[in-house]
Amino acid sequence: MTDGGPLAHLPSRSKNYERGEIRILQGRAHAMRPAGITERGERRLTLCGLLARPVTRPFDSGGHESCRTCAAVERVRPPARPIRLSPDLAALRSLLDQAAVEACRSPRSKYPMRPTDQILFELLEAV
Ligand SMILES: [Zn+2]
After folding, report:
1. pLDDT tens-digit profile of 6-15?
2. What is the whole-number distance in angstroms between the Cα of residue 55 and the centre of ligand 1?
3. How far apart are CA 91 and CA 89, in angstroms?
4. Domain range for residue 107?
5. Sheet of 44-45, strands arranged across
6. Which of the residues 48, 79, 95, 125 has an alpha carbon 20 to 30 A from that of 23?
7. pLDDT digits (tens, 9 = 90+) for 75-92
8. What's the whole-model pTM score?
9. Ligand 1 ion: nearby residues, β-carbon < 5 Å
């Protein structure tokens, strides 16, 4: 296991959660959950449980416009690793492609085989 997972080598600009905003509640910034399904309107759950649209800035827990609940959650549970949107997405897709190739590889292949649980663990470690 590598420290920070298989994507730890990617460049990092921020160690914060991704910032999210709610259009009808302008002025309040929330911290986006790092995992979740995006709903209609590009909204996803925040740390405080609201649906917000991510913006391309990090969440600043000390900002006067920041949600106090999101800031409290961030203090208790800081992000496991920095959020790097575009590099993360491209790298994760690459890992998924590689995992699919490995999982479908014939036992008679000349390439070394890894157990599927090891492949899955690497994917989970990356996210
Ligand atoms: Zn919030």
Report:
1. 777 776 656 8
2. 14
3. 5
4. 1-13+83-127
5. 29-31, 18-21, 51-58, 44-45
6. 79
7. 999 987 777 777 778 888
8. 0.71
9. 30, 46, 48, 67, 69-70
